[in-house]
Amino acid sequence: MMKQILILLTFCIGIIAFASDENKEKKGYEIGDIATDFELINVDDTKVSLSQFEDAKGFIVIFTCNHCPFSVMYEDRIIELDKKYKELGYPVVAISPNDVEAFPEDDLPNMKIRSEEKGFTFPYLYDETQEIARAYGATKTPHVFLLHKEQVDEEQALIVKYIGAIDDDKRGNDIEEKYIEMAIKALQNGEEVNPSVTKAVGCSVKWKK
Hints:
globular, two-stranded antiparallel ribbon
């Protein structure tokens, strides 16, 4: 009996350890982490990586999609962010991460249609494998990660400075705090970003089974 109990305990501990490792793997970036570059297909059929933006001081990386009503409500504000901040060195890079088998309206052909309809001024990239969304730890659409170029060990690296929502009003009718704009202003002034993390509000990322 004691042997059976020990075997059961060992099995349970193994399951807990596996779950812990899996959660750790899916955790994604935290403030201060170095974000690695990626290469994803854009709606114009070219491949885009962050390293192509040689003059950028950082990036507003936004995980978003076609079908989510929260993402749709933020589209005009995302366009305005790009128009305003890419001139200051912080372009928007939008990434669609959803499982298109579950939501066909989020596939690349429909991304192309949406980008043209709305006049997106930024890359709208397709994360087909969901590898980048997992690496970042994206959980919602939209979910924002503000990156800033800094010198690390004699090389330039992209440091995660802000994670969360674009602002404090999903509908855009009564915005009091524009989190992305506040964060970029702090970086420009050499100050700490505050808040550096907010709750992303939107549809859950649709993961592949």
